[in-house]
Design brief:
By secondary structure, this protein is an all-alpha fold. The longest helix is centred in the first third of the chain and has 22 residues. It is elongated, with a radius of gyration of 13 Å. The protein starts with 5 loop residues before the first helix and ends with a helix.
C-alpha cells in the first residue's frame, strides 16, 4: 500500500481536529472518559478519510 500524499494527510488532520472540537462543543462533556471516547472517535474518522481518499 503506498504512502498517503500530503493532501490526504491534511484532510485527515483537519477531520480529526474539527470533528474533535465539534463533538466536544456539542456534547459539553467534562470527564476524562468522555473526552477520551471523543478523541478516539475523531481519530477513527480521520483514518477513514485518509483511507477512502485512496479510492
Amino acid at each position: 500500500m503506498p504512502r498517503p500524499t500530503a493532501a490526504q494527510l491534511a484532510y485527515g488532520t483537519a477531520t480529526v481536529v474539527l470533528s474533535t472540537l465539534a463533538m466536544l462543543l456539542l456534547s459539553q462533556t467534562s470527564n476524562v472518559i468522555g473526552v477520551a471516547v471523543i478523541a478516539l472517535a475523531a481519530l477513527g474518522l480521520g483514518l477513514l478519510v485518509v483511507d477512502y481518499s485512496w479510492r
